Amino acid sequence: MRKNVILCGVGGQGTILASRLIASAAMKKDLPIKTAETIGMAQRGGSVFSHLRIGEGANSPLIAKGEADLIIAFEPGEAVRQLPFLKKGGAVVVSKRPVMPVSAMIGKSSYDADAMIAYLQANVEHLTIVDADRAAAELGSAKTLNVVLLGAAIRSGELGLGEAEVEEAMKERVPDKFWELNLKSLAWSK
Q1: CATH number, domain 2-187
Q2: Contact call for residues 93 and 52 (beta carbons, < 8 A)
Q3: What is the value of pTM for the model shown?
């Protein structure tokens, strides 16, 4: 198996934890993994993304444009921003809940999440849209969006890992008091 996966979102959404769960799950299957993250802007609500290359033959952790098998996007604008990395026939799993950038909040740029979702629908053949607001309401927490998206990525068939491997990784990284919530979040469907 060889997979190139990009996770993208905004600081504070759990993007880095999701990346580490995937890496840990791949290692549990004895798959080679290389990762690279940008987290400098995370504390300011800026863009955060991770590149994960799972399997043999990866000489660099960075994924070239047009080579990602899967993009897991925690926010529509970040999905559009990372779309040039997606290969033809690749898949995108995206939360439809927008996180407006600071520049749009202060009027220096515009942000239309519905237009971004429409753009993704028109340009991505294998698109899974996750209703993050519904997930939060049904699960009783918005803080497990990262695990909800991981579950959707597993069910898309494009991640190359199963729930069992991700559950094992979660046991090591998720505090016991949040275990049941995260387990329900992993199984939640759009």
Answers
A1: 3.40.920.10
A2: no
A3: 0.92
